[in-house]
Design brief:
It contains 14 helices and 6 strands. It has a 6-stranded antiparallel β-sheet. The protein has 3 domains: 172 residues, Cathepsin B, Chain A; 149 residues, Up-down Bundle (ABC transporter transmembrane region fold), CATH 1.20.1560; 64 residues. About 7% of the residues have low confidence. A hairpin with a 3-residue loop joins β3 and β4. The protein is extended and about 105 Å long. By secondary structure, it is an alpha+beta fold.
Length: 454
């Protein structure tokens, strides 16, 4: 904190502060939250991908991760349940976990919060990522292992932070959050002799060779178990309901655009019919009069399709500009009303991506939505027209549809991690560029242009 004018600093005696905390529980709660913010800055934090400030996981681990005082017993004490406590918690579950609900991280440093979100979903509560971030005190350098365990406890789960040997990997109660490659949190949910399955908040569900996992795992893990208190954990469902009032302002324009899209789809289906009439009637019967009629009809259809397409694009551009202006104004007002902790716990590129996301929502709801309607009407019309000519060929086409849908789903699963990687890299690049512009004087003074660019 910096004072720009002369000021007088007042202080309270520690005894007075303690009396106030005892008399006013709300004041005690607020003060505890404020103290947690300062303590969070001194705790070990693990960013998403890399950091130059943190040493490798094997070096000075006492400054990076605080573990629970009670560690798993040494070999020979209880090899069957080395992690179980006196309450019977943290026992290995008999049923293997084949799949876990994946939670994608939003910001670069959200891997820990997103991993804990997956743990909460496994135990039956969809706790929002924002709520977990708030409890973890996630900052620009990530979330500490102790913060993850403390947050899980506050939500009602039993949690332990441990350093686990590789020989006990198969005995761990899963799912668990593990420290990966010295700089990332992922969820381990299945282990066998050859492979392990993990849920990576930055990529998705992954199947890794066990030997590779053991080589990249630092040994740190957070174990969790269910308690009845977890039933009270707050749930939230993401929704785009806030965006609907903005769309409602342009519903007349959107209805006009959809009507034009349906008309264009129907007219485009007429061209194959015109072609058939030319081949079957005009050429065979040498009917010049029918040819002229068909040409006039085709010309009229082409003109109407072109004019409708131009009108559709104009209306969409009109709605998009005004929708972007309204939504960005709304988001800017919301953004400026947020507390300072929101900005200090996020990189500039992450905040910019949120604003860019509003344009993506608009593009999906307006432009891509109209395109999807156009494609759907055309597909239904084509199937009906095909069935009128040859039901057998129509059935053959429909029989191949599941194969096509399966290929589309497969391609989405393959390409999704790449898209998320590109988006994440774009956020890093944006933050890097903004930092370069803000600190250009220091870069120039140190003649560090090449080093900064690298």
């Amino acid at each position: 904190m910096e004072a720009f004018t002369d000021c007088q600093l007042l202080s309270l005696e520690p005894k007075s502060v303690q009396d106030l905390r005892r008399r006013f529980p709300e004041f005690d709660k607020l003060l505890s939250e404020r103290l947690a913010l300062y303590q969070a800055k001194t705790e070990a934090r693990i960013p998403l991908d890399f950091t130059t400030e943190l040493l490798p996981a094997e070096t000075h681990v006492q400054n990076k991760v605080e573990l629970d005082g009670q560690q798993p017993p040494a070999d020979g004490e209880d090899k069957e349940e080395p992690f179980a406590d006196e309450r019977g918690l943290f026992r290995k579950r008999g049923k293997r976990i084949r799949k876990i609900d994946h939670v994608m991280q939003i910001d670069e440093m959200d891997c820990g919060a997103a991993s804990l979100g997956m743990i909460c979903r496994y135990f039956g509560r969809k706790v929002s990522l924002a709520r977990i971030r708030q409890l973890c005190h996630t900052a620009t350098d990530g979330t500490s292992l102790k913060a993850l365990s403390r947050t899980a406890t506050e939500l009602g789960l039993a949690a332990r932070a441990l350093k686990i040997s590789i020989r006990n990997l198969s005995l761990m109660p899963l799912p668990a959050i593990v420290h990966w490659e010295g700089n990332h949190w992922i969820v381990l949910y299945d282990v066998d002799e050859q492979f392990v399955r993990v849920a990576d908040p930055a990529v998705g569900l992954r199947k890794l060779p066990r030997r590779e996992f053991e080589a990249k795992w630092t040994g740190y893990a957070a174990l969790f178990d269910y308690t009845p208190a977890f039933e009270q954990a707050p749930e939230s469902k993401p929704t785009l309901a806030w965006f609907l009032p903005f769309l409602a302002r342009f519903k007349v324009i959107l209805l006009q655009v959809m009507g034009l899209a349906v008309a264009v789809s129907v007219l485009q289906l007429l061209f194959p019919v015109f072609t058939q009439m030319v081949v079957d009637k005009v050429i065979v019967e040498n009917d010049v009069g029918l040819l002229k009629t068909i040409l006039v009809g085709m010309l009229a259809a082409i003109v109407f399709v072109q004019l409708s397409t131009l009108a559709q694009e104009y209306l969409l551009a009109f709605a998009a500009v005004r929708l972007d202006t309204t939504v960005l104004d709304f988001l800017s007002r919301k953004l400026l009303s947020l507390p300072m902790t929101y900005f200090t716990s996020r990189r500039t590129g992450d905040i910019q991506r949120r604003l860019d996301g509003a344009r993506q929502v608009r593009q999906f709801a307006v432009q891509q939505g109209v395109g999807a309607l156009l494609a759907a009407v055309f597909l239904v019309g084509a199937v009906i027209l095909m069935a009128m000519y040859s039901p057998l060929l129509t059935l053959a086409f429909l029989a191949t549809t599941p194969i096509y849908v399966g290929l589309m789903i497969f391609s989405v699963k393959v390409l999704r991690p790449l898209y998320h990687g590109v988006e994440e890299s774009q956020g890093k690049y944006s933050s890097h560029q903004i930092d370069a512009i803000k600190g250009i004087e220091a870069v120039k003074a140190a003649s560090a242009e090449n080093a900064f660019r690298d």
